[in-house]
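QA checklist item 7 of 12: single-chain prediction sanity check.
[x] sequence parsed
[x] length recorded as 309
[x] structure emitted
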Amino acid sequence: MNEKIVVVALGHRALGTTLPEQKEATRATAKAVADLVEEGAKVVISHSNGPQVGMIHTAMNEFGKAHPDYTFAPMSVCSAMSQGYIGYDLQNSIRAELLSRGIYKPVSTVLTQVVIDPYDEAFAEPEKIIGRVLNEDEAEIEEEKGNFVTPCEGGYRRILAAPRPQRIVEFETIRTLTDAGQVVIAAGGGGIPVLEQGIQLHGASAIIEKDLAAGLMAEELNADTLMILTSVEKVSLNLGKDNEEFLDTISVQQAQEYIEANQFAPGSMLPKFEAGISFIEKGEGRRTVITDIAHAKDGYLEKTGTIIK
């Protein structure tokens, strides 16, 4: 049987927020992944890391303040840490679920770096909030370091740019493991953002949209399906209004028209559609499925979900 490649982008609800929540949430995620494997798919997984990387960033930097002998952890390091511990819970949950079904298939986590453009316009307008609430003095210190902050209730929060992913550094590793039939977890949190300087890779203070990174990975793998698992079974037009309408199967042209009509929120549903459209346009016979964890299998079988093709 010629197995189809499915790249799955997991939203934060598939992972929980705290350590106990994450362990429990990954069990439900593992069932969805195992369902896809049973349908004959080669599965590659990307995932969100929003709450997790924020927790790590706060913990490491608070520790640095309390212990002057230790250095503060840059965002790239925090991103790498989040990939490791999310991947740890995911791969163990998926492995156990597969074994419970009599499926003997290795599961691997790849620490993944993603190259970004230092001149990306996103650096001029950072928007991703990270870390705890800061007081005025702490906010000034961050600005003196060259970081950006924004006012919020009770003080200030640090904000980061969300540049577009350009290239996945460990792609050949991901492809080799996928071709070998393993379930692969890669580009977690959108990947560790890095800048190329000669032969060196330097971590960047940024956060990459995980849906865009998943879309890029799907493009390079020549996947058949990009499956984006989020908080809703189907995407809505006119969300929360009297004329709210659920989307079933739509064309790329329709999806682009909805984007132009500002139907999808930036940083939320918009990058999902941008990733889905880009993926479909760069290959033949591709589709994007947007649904929730509970309906992953039915979405794959096109029984529900919002499907772009």
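[x] summary fact logged: The longest strand covers residues 4-10.
[ ] second reviewer sign-off
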